[in-house]
Specification:
By secondary structure, the protein is an alpha/beta fold. The protein has helices spanning 22-29, 53-57, 79-88, 101-114, 123-129, 139-150, 160-165, 167-178, 205-220, 224-232, 235-240, 251-272; strands at 12-14, 70-72, 93-98, 155-159, 200-202, 242-245. The chain is built from 12 helices and 6 strands. It has a 4-stranded parallel β-sheet with strand order 2-1-3-4, sandwiched between helices. A two-stranded antiparallel sheet has the order 5-6.
Length: 295
C-alpha cells in the first residue's frame, strides 16, 4: 500500500466466480461490514488497476474501523487479479463459492448476451468459438492457485448448492471465517426474494454494448449516482432488454454439457476431497437461473 493511501482497504474479498451468488452475499453483508461506497463491484483488480490504489481506497472512505471492510467481486478466474490482490492486500482472506458448471455456464451465456457481448447463437455454438466463456471451468486449477498464493487456511471454499438450500448455514460459515458477527436471515425477510436473473436478450446488441461501455466509463469516474439515476429511469432496462426470451436448455443439451465438464468436476472432487456426484447427473425438475439466489 502506498504511503499516500488515506482510507482502509478490504480485509476479505468474495472473489466469485461470477453468477454464483455474489449479489446475494453482498446484499446480506450490507450494514454489517463496510462495502464499497456507491457500487457493488469495483473491478479494480481487473479493469481499473491502472487508476491506482488510492482510487480503489476511496471506495472505502467511510469505513471507520468499527466494522470489517470487504468487497464482493468476481476476480476468481483472473491470474492478474490474484497476483495484484496478493501484492496490495497480502493478508486478505478469500471467499470462493463454486456453482455447478452447467447451471453457471448458461447463466454466464445469458449475462453476456444481456450486455451485448454475444451476438446470438445457442450456448453450444458460442462455446465452439469461445470455450473460455466466463473464465472457463478450470475450477481446480484456479482454486489451487488461490490456495498456493494465500494459504489454504485463508481461503474459504463454499458451494452454491448450500447457499440455495441452507442459506443460513452458508452465511454462518462466511461470517465465522471472516470474524463478522453472525447475521440472522430471519430478520432479513426481504433477502429471500432477492432475485437477479436475466429473462430476455437485448433487442439491439449494439445498443446493449454501447450502454455497457457507458456504464464502465461512469464506473471508472466513480459517477455511480448517474448510473443509479439511469437505473431508476429505466434506461438500462431499455438498452439491455425487450428482446427474445431465453429458452431453457433441452435435456440433450444439458447432457452434452455435463459430459463436457465431467473431468473438471472430478478434478475438483480430488482437490477438495468431497463428493460432487450431484453435479454429474441431471436435476429434475429444474429451472435454470430463475432460482431464489441467482446472481
Amino acid at each position: 500500500m502506498s504511503a499516500a493511501v488515506k482510507y482502509r482497504l478490504p480485509e476479505f474479498l468474495g472473489v466469485g466466480p461470477g453468477r454464483s451468488g455474489t449479489t446475494w452475499l453482498h446484499r446480506v453483508l450490507e450494514g454489517h461490514v463496510d462495502l464499497p461506497y456507491g457500487v457493488k463491484e469495483v473491478l479494480y483488480f481487473t479493469l481499473f488497476y491502472d487508476k491506482g490504489i488510492d482510487w480503489y481506497a476511496r471506495h472505502f472512505r467511510y469505513a471507520t474501523g468499527e466494522r470489517k471492510v470487504a468487497e464482493i467481486c468476481p476476480y476468481f478466474f483472473s491470474p492478474e487479479a490474484r497476483a495484484r490482490i496478493k501484492t496490495d492486500l497480502p493478508n486478505c482472506k478469500i471467499i470462493i463459492t463454486l456453482r455447478e458448471p452447467v447451471d453457471r455456464i448458461y447463466s454466464v451465456y445469458k449475462t453476456r448476451r444481456h450486455y451485448g457481448w454475444l451476438r446470438g447463437g445457442t450456448l453450444e455454438e458460442v462455446l465452439k468459438v469461445r470455450p473460455q466463456l466466463g473464465g472457463g471451468y478450470n475450477y481446480a486449477f484456479h482454486l489451487k492457485a488461490w490456495f498456493d498464493l494465500f494459504g489454504r487456511e485463508n481461503v474459504l471454499v463454499t458451494l452454491y448448492d448450500e447457499l440455495r438450500k441452507q442459506p443460513q448455514s452458508y452465511l454462518d460459515r462466511v461470517t465465522d471465517f471472516t470474524g463478522v458477527e453472525r447475521i440472522s436471515l430471519s430478520e432479513r425477510p426481504e433477502i429471500e426474494s432477492d432475485v437477479h436473473s436475466f429473462a430476455r436478450a437485448p433487442k439491439s446488441a449494439k445498443l446493449a454494448r454501447n450502454a455497457r461501455r457507458l456504464m464502465y466509463w461512469l464506473q471508472g469516474h466513480q459517477a455511480y449516482s448517474v448510473s443509479d439515476l439511469f437505473e431508476r429511469a429505466g434506461i438500462w432496462d431499455f438498452c439491455y432488454g425487450r428482446g427474445e426470451l431465453y429458452p431453457r436448455l433441452t435435456p440433450e443439451q444439458e447432457a452434452r454439457l455435463r459430459e463436457r465438464f465431467l473431468p473438471e468436476v472430478e478434478a475438483l472432487e480430488e482437490l477438495l476431497t468431497i463428493d460432487l456426484s450431484a453435479w454429474k447427473k441431471p436435476r429434475a425438475p429444474r429451472v435454470i437461473e430463475n432460482s431464489l439466489h441467482a446472481d
